[in-house]
Amino acid sequence: MLEKRIIICLDVRDGKITKGIKFQENIDIGDPVEMAKKYYDEGVDELVFYDITASFENRGIMIDVVRKVAENIFIPFSVGGGIGSVEDIRRVLLAGAEKVSVNSQAVKNPDIIRQGASLFGNQCIVLGMDAARDDTMPSGYRVYINGGRIPTDLDALEWAKKAEDLGAGEIVLNSMDADGTQQGYELTVTRMISEKVHIPVVASGGAGKPVHLYDVLTKGKADAALIASMVHYGDFTISGIKKYLHERNICIRME
Predict the structure, then answer these.
(1) 252 in a domain, yes or no?
(2) Which of 165, 187, 227, 254 has its Cα between 20 and 30 A from that of 236?
(3) Higher-pLDDT residue of 146, 189
């Protein structure tokens, strides 16, 4: 049985870790380098770093922050936000990240997935997807870009399958409806996509209690659970969450 993973998301805006609810009302809560080191020391399995305004502001990612974070942690580390070319991917990987997440730019230029996978390997290319409920779409979920600001014509399930065909090695599926609410993951879309693709699916958006992770890793069939608010504000610890899951027979890395 493959180990399930707990991944902490570090959303960065203007060089600071920030957190909002449903992509709005963000507040700054800390320094990315310090928080990355703290979570690494606490035993998190992976980290995801998102420069959340890079695409909206039409600029490149803050590579200096990526480099500083990578120097302080020794676990898989994914970076996303404003990555629009193979050269951007190369720069991020050379700065110390193991994976690169493409979201808005992949929608605009899907070939970046194929090119990136061909040059650097499928395991390096992650599709980041922001999806929200929409009954007019075949799967019931629509893809959004630019930090959830712009709706696209893409159906979430069809886009996930296409990204896999292009060479993506993993999908981080973020529910915009659940994001930051701490009321639980969106299990329906997570399970739907997890059952239809053959690459790992990371559930994102809505974690507030350890039971939410249990639910998405079992009922939602996710390979990993991404968390933010529930640990950023000190409500729970990585060790406590892992203990809870381990006691309920979830195969997970323990220290």
Answers:
(1) no
(2) 187
(3) 189
Active site residue 130: yes
Nearest one of 58, 48, 59 to 12, comparing CA atoms: 48
Q: Give yes or no: 11 in active site.
A: yes
- Which residues, in sequence order, are bridge partners of residue 125? 100
Instruction: Please report, for the domain that includes residue 199, its CATH number.
Output: 3.20.20.70
Q: What is the mean pLDDT of residues 168-177?
A: 96
- Tens digit of pLDDT for each residue in 208-221? 999 999 999 999 99
Given 51, 88, 130, 179, the catalytic residue: 130
Least confident interval from 41-55, 126-140, 167-181 = 41-55
Which two structure tokens, joined as six digits, stand for 138? 């075949």
Q: What is the pLDDT of residue 147?
A: 79
Q: Is residue 254 part of a domain?
A: no
**Domain region containing 172:** 5-247
- Contact assessment for residue 184 and residue 178, using Cβ atoms and an 8 Å cutoff: yes
